[in-house]
Predict the structure.
Amino acid sequence: MSIANMEAQPARLILLDGGDAGGLYIDATGVHTLPPLAPAILSQLRGVAHLLRSAQDEALDEQMEQELNALLTRVSDLAIERVEAAVGPLAGKDALVYLEYDDGFICGSTGGPPRPLPWPTAGSLPPQDLTQYNQLTAEIGNFINAASAAGLDMAEVFEDPSTAAEKIGFRLSGHAAGSLQQIAPSQLENIPDPVSREVIELYHKVSADGRFIDRWTAQPAAVAEALGSKLSVDAIDRILGSAAITGGPVSTPEVVTDVVIIVGVLLTLRPGDIIEDRSGLAKF
C-alpha cells in the first residue's frame, strides 16, 4: 500500500532500523508496510534520537537538562509534523515508534516529549549471561522448528519439552526445557508481563486452530479477531517488532517468524526467571 493511497485517518507508525528499512503503518484498515521515508525526514528523526540520548546523561546539571528537554520537545514536534505530512495524521502520544538496532523512542502528535525505548536485550546483562542467552535462543529456535516439522502438538511440546525432544531425537538441555515450560498453555497466568502473556496466548490459539499459522505474525489483529480474541496495541507492536526484541538488526519490514516471537518473549524475562529443569534427572 503506497503512502499516497492511505486514508486520512489517525494511525500509528513503527519505523524499523532507523527508518532505513521502511516501517509498519497501522490504521483502521489493517497493517501496511511502507518504503523508507524521505532522507530529510529520517535525518530529523535520527537527530531526535541523538538528542534524547544526550538528555539522559546523568552528568547534566538541572538547568542544562531543562534546556535540552525543551529543545528535544521542539525538534520532535517538528519531526512529527514532517512525518504526518508524508503518511497522514497520527493518533495520540504514542503514535510514532522509532526503532534502531539497540534502542529507540516513542513520541506522538500531542506535543509531549519523546520517551526512550531500550530493547530488553540491550540492557545491562554481563557478557557471560549474554553469551548464555545467545546459546539458549539458538537451541530453542532449532528445537521449535524441529518439533513443528515433525508434526508434534505444540501445546504438548511446551508442556513437556524434554519428552518431545526425546520423540524426535533432539538434544535439548534442561535449561532450555525449563524455559519453554514457562510459556506453556498451563502457565499463561504466571507470565508476569501482560503484553507477553497476550502474545503467547495468541500463539497457542493459532497453533491449536491451525488455519492462520502462515499469517498470524503479519496480521495479528485480524487473526486474533477471527479466533475470538482482541489484542492490545502493545501486543500488536510486540508481534510486528519482535525481530528487534531478539537483538538482531531488522533489515526489511517483513513480518517475523513464530520462533523469533517465542525467543523474544523469553528474553523479556529477567535472567532469574529462566528456570532450570527440576526433575533432578540428567538429560543427555
Observations:
- The two ends are 50 Å apart (CA to CA).
- The beta strands are 12-15, 23-27, 30-34, 96-99, 104-107, 115-116.
- Residues 30 and 219 are 8 Å apart (CA to CA).
